[in-house]
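Listing S7. Sequence submitted for prediction.
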Amino acid sequence: MAAKFNLGKMSEKELKALKRGIENELKTSRTRAVAAATQELQNAAQRIAKKHGLAVNEVLGKKRKFRKSPVPPKYRNPNDPSQTWSGRGRRPAWFREATDEGKSAKSLEI
């Protein structure tokens, strides 16, 4: 069994450190449990598939990887038409400069 603590005599700093240690240990314990359960499940699936002369992928199916399709550009740099932006993510420098100069986003649309 773990050591006993007199929490009433501990400083706030010590209590916070203890709390962080406990939270980290709980996460580690959970990660180990999930890994063990996953391995047990994989072993069981392999045994069952082998028993029927099949591969695990045949029984469980392959996981499909979905790719995000690229978003078509929405804005174009009037000074350099090769520079475009979809309107998602961080605004490019040329877009920020144009809007700072007073151009509207609407005027930069393709």
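Caption to Listing S7: primary sequence and predicted structure tokens for the chain studied. The mean pLDDT is 89. The chain has two domains: 11-60, 75-108.
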